[in-house]
Design brief:
single chain, 277 residues, mainly alpha, three-stranded mixed beta sheet, 14 helices, disordered N terminus
Length: 277
């Protein structure tokens, strides 16, 4: 123990900041004391997407093997990331999803399983024809898709799940594997960007002259048969399919189309069912 004199001397020693600082430095150097920073709590923040499904693998596959809408099926067939993504879809529970998460999931599922169906038949010139696409027969009726222990066909996904969600822009995003389909986007659809992504696909699809042509000098247009087959989807809220299309045209063309919508002659472009490769 310190005697009274020693205690007084120690008190005076610590009253001088320089002395206190030197002692702390010496103790730290000697390892006599140590400071620890607590690790961040593992439960400090809840997961951002507790029910979300990761679509990164699909984006990687599409980014590497899709160019200007053309799909390199041969390359995807040997890419291990694609079956890994299919496994993600199969193990998912879409019933736990809502809103954009749910719509993005089913659009990606439709496109991914269409690719899977092509790969199972590849090499092949075409999987579809007009009759099977419009009636939901053939390829579209086959229940080869298994998600969360339930079986679906492409027809089930499109007509029983996606279309009833009420957004006609899905027709810009769903790709049935034919050249005249809208181009396959080189990334997966994701919640938070879904509306932006579908709008971009709409502008791209409408601008493709092999699918949609606008000749205002002749007062006639030739548009994709998608606008005929699914006209009821585009005519919701009392609007016509031409009004819908106008949103994806440059402003000058949109004004002309709306001004002439009552008199302009509408034809439909021939649908190319060859594989979109």
């Amino acid at each position: 123990m310190f005697n009274t004199r020693g205690e007084v001397m120690l008190t005076h020693f610590f009253r001088r900041p320089a002395n206190f600082k030197r002692m702390i430095t010496a103790l730290l150097a000697a390892g006599a004391i140590a400071f620890t920073v607590p690790a961040p709590s593992r439960t400090a923040m809840p997961p951002a997407r507790p029910n979300g499904i990761e679509h990164t693998l699909f984006t990687q596959v599409l980014a590497d093997h899709v160019k200007d809408g053309a799909v390199d099926y041969k390359a995807i067939k040997t890419d291990p990331r694609f079956p890994q993504y299919i496994a993600v879809l199969q193990k998912s529970n879409p019933e736990a999803l809502t809103g954009e998460e749910k719509l993005a999931f089913w659009i990606n599922a439709y496109n991914a399983f269409t690719i899977q169906y092509v790969l199972d038949k590849y090499p092949v010139k075409s999987l579809m024809n007009k009759l099977s696409y419009v009636t939901g027969g053939g390829t579209f009726k086959t229940k080869f898709i298994k998600i969360n222990s339930r079986k679906y066909s492409l027809n089930d996904i499109e007509n029983d799940i996606i279309r009833p969600m009420g957004d006609p822009r899905i027709h810009f995003a769903l790709v049935c594997g034919a050249k005249s389909c809208p181009p396959l986007r080189a990334e997966a659809y994701v919640a938070g960007r879904l509306s932006e992504q579908m709008n971009e696909q709409g502008r791209l699809f409408i601008s493709q002259s092999d699918k949609n042509r606008f000749d205002f000098e002749k007062n006639e247009i030739a548009i994709s048969k998608i606008f005929d087959w699914f006209k009821d989807d585009f005519r919701k809220n009392g609007k016509s399919e031409l009004e819908f299309i106008s949103h994806y045209l440059p402003p000058e063309q949109a004004q002309k189309l709306l001004a002439r919508s009552a008199t302009i002659k509408v034809k439909y472009t021939e649908y190319d069912w060859d594989l979109n490769e």
